[in-house]
What does this fold into?
Amino acid sequence: MKLGIILQSNRQEHVWNALRLAITARKAKHDVRIFLLSEGVELEHISDTGDFDISKKVKDFTDLGGQILACGTCLKSRSQPESATCSISTMADLLRMIEESDKVLTFG
It folds into this structure.
């Protein structure tokens, strides 16, 4: 299955759960892409806590071959650069992800 996840939250628990699902799906050999939108583009600036190990989950997901895309307009509005983990993307990329996915979920 091809799974598209739209993450538009910077709340630790929302992000953590989205990443847990994405990791579980990748381990089950599903194609998973995450598109960061709105506050979701702040993913790499979310602090880890005892309960929510966000940076580890991001690494686990990308190590499993998962792809993370980030809305360029949202990054720009927050004065954030592209990163090695999250490549700058557009609404056309989001649309393509939606069109190519069997299921699309939104966290936020």
